[in-house]
Every structure is written in structure tokens, then in C-alpha cells.
Amino acid sequence: MLYLELFIQGLVQGSIYGLIALGLTLVYGLLRILHVAHAALFTLGGYIGVVVTNTTGSFPLAIVVAMVAVGLVGMAVYKLAYEPLLHRPPYIALIASIALFIASEEIFRIVFGPFGLSYIDPPLQGQIEIFAGFRLKYGEILVMGIAIVMLSALAWLSAKTRTGIAWRATVTDPEMAAAFGINIQNVRYLNFFIASALAAVAGVLVALLNNLVEPTMGSVPSYKALAIIVLGGLGSIRGTLVASLALGIIESFGTIYVGHLLDRDALAFAFLILILMVRPQGLLGGK
Amino acid sequence: MAYEITLLTTMAISILFALSLNFISGFCGQISLGHAAFLGTGAYASAMLTKSSIPFLLTLPVAAIIAGFFGFLIGLASLRVRHDFLAITTMGVGFLFVGIVRKQDFLGGELGMAGIPSPDMSRESFMVFCIILAVIFAVFSLYIRRSWMGFVFESIADNEDVTRILGIDASRFKLAAFVIGTAVAGIAGALYAHHFRYIGPDSFGFVQSVSVLAMVIVGGVGSVWGVAFAAAVLSILPLLVQFIDDYKLLFYSALLFAMMRFAPDGVAGIVQRIFGFARRGS
């Protein structure tokens, strides 16, 4: 029974990682930028979610508002921060991104206060008994459900629609795609919109699970999501999802069995280094 | 006077630390996001030794050897993974260091180590000692840069594959860069521990690794004078802007962002643009 509970917890955590890391992998696949500030958009999503829920009382509305607003902010981040740096060595964009992330954390602290916000009337607090002695919180079910819905929608979008095909073409070979008349600029905006909207959903969901948003809630996911996309083989969507779920599960078991030696975050990176030394191209990476 | 001495000592240690990363990331082009782990290794090693009453000066080589040994291991990793993968691996090493130290009781765990004995010298001589070490390493860096080794480093930073095709054993040079850079970071760590006389896991976390990389990039990657200048300014900047206390980190990160956005060549780049020098090697 303990195993099953740890496993489910791992899946829930893994779904959250997946939503965050997927956006990161989309950005990396298109621009070769390690977008640390992605986690700031995740935090922003959480704040918008809580504020909108508290003012309007509608949780679904909060999710939509958070997605759209953060998606737009994500596009602005690309336009203002990354576009001018594209022809520079990649570490310039990386440092700029880290600086942006630290600055955002400070802005959250100054605007919303250091102690964070909670839902006044937290939605979906009950739990349901699946079978004797085994319960799941509604929130946890929602997390896994939303992750599945979002990722399926994304898979459908990229496989079946013209926009999706243009997008994949651009990721594979930007110059060739441009030669075929695809507007690269629009693809990049779309890419940032979707990536940021996914991060916003993850933020709202984490805020729901913990019933708390705080300025620093992005720190751990930001670096861990980097570890995940590297594990997944940088730019591979399938690899990212596998790595997210694997890491969620490994952390959940690891904290029980080796928690006295390493803390949770170090565990993730120990796993990362171990895998990279054996497979330098990541779990499912090609090349 | 005591305040100025503290300030100058902090500055000298930062310069030494930043130059040690410049050796790896600047000269040899291997970006490291976990360099604070080696500062920490040196600091913990040296503090453990002086706490069991071994003379401070004797602990310096030990700190260098231990940090250099771990640097050698990371160097081996750098032979396996490159570029972004290496950046993330080194970041992982940083988190691993903090995560392990946190859980070890003999290293003080979460609380860190307090009551580290003072070095066996007056505060003034300690300051002079730190400055001398920083100057020695700066001169050594300048010398290396003009040596055969420096040329190989530059060529690896530029294009590792071509370097290998030329028949140069790039792996050996990369390992050398990592060992020298991390060993010097270990020495800087030993100085750090005996300057502040308290160390904890959070003194050597990701923020410190990013700050030191920021010093290297703001100074101008590879430029010894630029990096030394940036390290000197950035290390005392938080103290100089105490008056905006609550907005300190915001100011610092905004400055860093603006620097990357508008002058990614760093201070050295700005100076070169003003005086119209030809860019070295580009």
C-alpha cells in the first residue's frame, strides 16, 4: 500500500514537472536557449490563479485567465529578452534568463509580500476512496487529468493542424521552413505562448495542491526542469515526458529510502549526472 | 579602518575565485554553473583541519588538492558531455554538493560550521596575504594565456573538434584547466572560511555559482583585468547599495540582465570599444 501511495505521489509530481518541462523543451527545441525564467512564469501563473479565484470565486476561470495572461507575458519575454540575444553565444541568454528569474522573484516578493497568498476558499479539497484504505485527493486527480488533457491537445495540435506542422518544420530546420514560406517569427511567438500557458497551468495546480503561492515557489522547479529536459535529451518531447514521470517517481521513493544521505533536490541531480555519464545524449536523445 | 580591511579582503578573495572560474570558462570555454561547490570544498576541508588545530597555512595546499581532485572528476565528466549538457551537469554538481553537505552531521549539516579559528596572523597581514595570492594568480593567468597552453585553451574554446583534428590532445588540456581552476577555487574557499569564520551549505549554493559566473561574464569572458575588475566591483556592490536594502537583489539582477542585453562583451568589451582596440583573437 505504501508503494502504491508513493507511486501515485510520484505520478502527480511527475505530471507537474512534465507541464513545466515541456514548455522548457519547446523553447529549447526552437531557440537553443535554456530558459530558466520559465519558472518565473510558472510562479506568475500561480499568483494569477489565486488572485482571480479569490476575487471572482471561479476556479476554472482562474485557470483560463492565468493561461492567457501568462502566455502573453511569455511572448513579451521572448520579444524583449531573447530575440536580441539570438546571435550571441548561448551562455549570454542563459545568464540573462537567470537574472530575469531572480528579478521576477524579487518583484513577486515586493508586490505580493514575502509570505505568499492562499485561496480564501480552496476549491476541490475533498478526497475520494478508490478502494478500501486507498484515497486520492480531488486535486491530485485534477493534476493528472489536466496533464493528460493538455499533453494530448498538444500532440493533436502538432500532428494534425497546419500550424502544428509549420511548428515542427521550424524546429527541425528553421531555414528550410522559412524557404517554404513559414513565418518563423509567428512560430516563435506561438511557441512561447504555448510554453508559458503550460507553465501557468502548472503554477495554478501547484498553488492548489499546497494551497499556497510564494515568491520562491519557482526556484526548485526552474533548475529541476532544466535537469529534466537534459535527461530527456534536450528538445525531445517524448523524452521530456518520460524523464518527468521517472524523476517524480524516483524522488518520491528516494526521499523515503536515501533521504538521510541526500536531500530531494540533490537526488534529482545525482540521477541526472549518473544517466548523463552513461548516456551523454539523454534518456531518449538521438544522435 | 577595520571596515576597509574587511572590504579589501572580501574583494581579494572574490577576485581569486572569479579568476579561477575564468581559467575554466574564460580561457578554455567550459561553462560551469557549479563553481561554488569547489569554493565550498576548499572551505570545509580547510575549516575542518584548522578546527583540529592544524596551522592555517598548511591547510591551503590540502584544500587545493581536495578541490582539485573533485575538479578532476568534473573534468572527466566534461569529456563526456559538452556545451549545454555540461552547463547542466556542473549545475547538478553544485546542487549535489549542497545536498550532501546539508545531511552530514560532521560538517555541521544545515547549521554549518561556526567558530572557525582565525588564521594565525593579524587582520592586516591576512588582507595582504589574500591580495598577494590574487595578484600571483592574475599574473599566472596572464602568463598561461600567452603560453602554448593558453593557445590550446583558446582553440578548444573556439572549436574543440578542429583542435582535435590538429592532433592536439584536447582532453588533457581540458582536464588541466579544470584541475587548476578548481584547485585555486579551493584555496579561495580556505581564505573565505577563515575570513568570515562561519560557513554553511547556503554559502556555496547556486546563487554563488551564478554570481561568480556573472563576474566572469560582466568582466568580459577570458579577460583577466576585466574579470578582476568586475569581481572587485560586484563583490562589494551589495555592501555599497545597503541603503536600498530591500531592493538589493532586484537591483543586482536588473543590472546583470541589462549588461547581458546591451553589453554582452562585458567591461573588457566596452573598454575595447571605447579605445577602438582590435578584438583579441575574437
Provide structural commentary:
Chain A has helices at 2-31, 38-56, 59-82, 90-112, 138-160, 162-172, 174-179, 184-210, 219-231, 237-257, 264-278, and strands spanning 127-131, 134-137. Chain A is mainly α. Chain A has a domain at 23-218. Chain A has a two-stranded antiparallel sheet with strand order 1-2. In chain A, helix 9 crosses helix 10 and helix 10 packs across helix 11. The termini of chain A are far apart. The model of chain A has no long low-confidence stretch (mean pLDDT 84). Chain B has a domain at 13-205. Chain B is globular and about 50 Å long. Chain B starts with a helix and ends in a 7-residue tail after the last helix. Chain B is an all-alpha fold. The interface between A and B is large, with 41 and 38 residues.
The spatial strand order of the largest sheet of chain A comes to 1-2
The whole-angstrom Rg of chain B is 18 Å
Helix share, percent of chain A: over 70%
Number of strands of chain B: 0
Structural class of chain B: mainly alpha
Q: What portion of residues of chain B is helical?
A: over 70%
Order of helices and strands of chain B: HHHHHHHHHHHH
What is the tally of helical segments of chain B?
A: 12
Rg of chain A, Cα atoms, Å: 19 Å
Please outline the major beta sheet of chain A.
2 strands, antiparallel
Oligomer: heterodimer
Helix/strand-derived class of chain A?
A: mainly alpha
Strand fraction of chain B equals: under 5%
Total beta strand runs of chain A: 2
Pair of chains with the largest interface and how many residues each contributes? A-B, 41 and 38 residues
Distance between the termini of chain B: 43 Å
From the N-terminal CA to the C-terminal CA of chain A, the straight-line distance is 41 Å
Q: What would the average pLDDT of chain A be, to the nearest integer?
A: 84
Q: Could you tell me the strand content of chain A as a percent range?
A: under 5%
Low-confidence stretches of chain B: none
